[in-house]
Amino acid sequence: MKSGTMCCQADWYVPNLCASTSILFRSQPLRCSRLRNQLARGQRLRELLKQSQSAPLTVAEQISTIYTETNGYLDSLEIGQVRKFLVELRTYLKTNKPQFQEIISSTKTFTEEAETLLKDAIQDQMECFRLQEQL
C-alpha cells in the first residue's frame, strides 16, 4: 500500500509532503478541491508572513494575517490583491480598532474580544476594498 493521504474518494491518491524540502511529489494530479485550497492557503500564508528585516510585523499583525488567511477571508481575492488587502487591513486596525493591538500587547493572548474586533475590521475592510476595486 502506498504511503500518503487519501482525499475525498478512495481512488485519488495524494502523496506526502517531503518535510525536508517542502516539495510536493505528485504521482497523480490533485483532484480534491478541498486539499488544493488548503495547500494554496498554506502557500499564500508562507508568502504573506515573509518579513523585511527593517520592518518586521508585530505580533498583532502576524495574528491578523494568519487569522484572515486561515479562516478563508482571502479566498475570494486574486493572489495579486491579497498583500494590498492585508496592508490596508493593518492600517485600518491601527486607525479604527487600536484596542486590538492593545489587547494583544497587554494580555499576550488572542482573546474573544480581540477576535470580535478583528472580524469586524476584516468585514469592514473587505467591503471598502471591493468598492475600491470596482472603481
Quick gist of this model?
With 135 residues, this protein is mainly alpha-helical. Helix content is 59%, strand content 6%.
- SSE run: EEEEHHHHH
Main sheet: strand order: 1-2
Mean pLDDT score, rounded?
79
User: At CATH's second level, what is the architecture of the largest domain?
Assistant: Up-down Bundle
Number of domains: 2
Instruction: Please compute the radius of gyration using only Cα atoms.
Output: 18 Å
**Relevant CATH superfamily of the largest domain:** ATP synthase alpha/beta chain, C-terminal domain
Organism: Gossypium arboreum
InterPro entries: ATP_synth_asu_C, ATP_synth_asu_C_sf, ATP_synth_F1_asu
Domain ATP synthase alpha subunit C-terminal: 36-124
Protein name: ATP synthase alpha subunit C-terminal domain-containing protein
Task: Give a topology summary.
Layout: E1 5-6, E2 13-14, E3 17-18, E4 23-24, H1 33-48, H2 59-70, H3 79-96, H4 98-107, H5 112-134
Antiparallel strand pairs: 1-2, 3-4
Helix pairs in contact: 1-2, 3-5, 4-5
Describe this structure in words.
By secondary structure, the chain is mainly alpha-helical. The protein has 2 domains: 31 residues, no CATH class; 93 residues, Up-down Bundle (Lysin), CATH 1.20.150. The protein is built from 5 helices and 4 strands. The strands form 2 sheets. A two-stranded antiparallel sheet has the order 1-2. A hairpin with a 4-residue loop joins β3 and β4. α3 packs across α5 and α4 packs antiparallel against α5. It is globular. The N terminus is likely disordered.
